[in-house]
Amino acid sequence: MNSANVDYEDACLIVRYLASMRPFAQSFDIYLTQILRVLGESAIAVRTKAMKCLSEVVAVDPSILARLDMQRGVHGRLMDNSTSVREAAVELLGRFVLSRPQLTEQYYDMLIERILDTGISVRKRVIKILRDICIEQPTFSKVTEMCVRMIRRVNDEEGIKKLVNETFQKLWFTPTPPHDSEGMTRKILNVTDVVAACRDTGYDWFEQLLQNLLKSEEDSSYKPVKKACVQIVDNLVEHILKYEESLADSDSKGMNTNCLVACLITLYLFSKIQPHLMVKHAMTLQPYLTTKCNVSILSTCTTSHSTHTQAKVLYIYIYVEVNLNLHTLLDHS
């Protein structure tokens, strides 16, 4: 290569190559191994500093988190006896998993278990990371599970309860722009998937969350949660009508019936907390009340019944809920 033709980029490449050939540059694995070894020291302060040191190394090259020795080291500190060390390990993951989707998959199982950590600060950090993953990586396969695990902390310590409320206000109960139909559909599917996933454990958490959020804006002139609820209910009804129409297609009947039941359960939960949102849809849903199912199963609508029967029962539930509150609503109007 003619030195007269070496431009700035070529010069940088040459310098990097020469630097990489120096003994210090070739000692990376040795130093990283030593840092990982220090993570096992008996002194808490030393382990915490080692985690912070490791975080600085990862900041330069997040890809090293994919190494097996790094996985073992981080996992060990996530299980550390010290809250400060566990928090430092969670913080390390939180800084970098968002920028590398493959790392989210790799460290997910380790991270999700820390939502039950005995340390409040650790649980808070985990919830913040899970929230950011839901927002930044909405197509991640574990989004539903993450939401379920987060929302179950709705009755946790006051600070965490507040964080959970804020998290789901951002995820679900912030009004969606009218032109963002894709975002609205994604929200509806996320909400109904989470509701369906909690079928066996009950829905008290959802009611508690919705009540908390609505109460928080009672004295506010701007009510984003209420507006978001209107959007969700309206779109749930649209989805229900769409699923009902598609049930004639035998190829997708099973899947659509399950989706229909999930939408109906979600709509029923909204109708319990905000029945007035359903009034304008009452006549729309009334034709679907025709059913031959036994009234006695109204109180025992479980997975032991067919999804078709469950759907019919849920229509009745919703309609009854709205009618029970209709006189009260009219009195206040």
Automatic annotation (TrEMBL):
Domain of life: Eukaryota
Protein name: Nipped-B-like protein A
Pfam families: Cohesin_HEAT
Biological process according to GO: brain development; chromatin looping; digestive tract development; embryonic viscerocranium morphogenesis; establishment of mitotic sister chromatid cohesion; establishment of protein localization to chromatin; heart morphogenesis; regulation of gene expression
Molecular function terms from GO: chromatin binding; cohesin loader activity
Organism encoding this protein: Callorhinchus milii (Ghost shark)
One GO cellular component, as annotated: Scc2-Scc4 cohesin loading complex
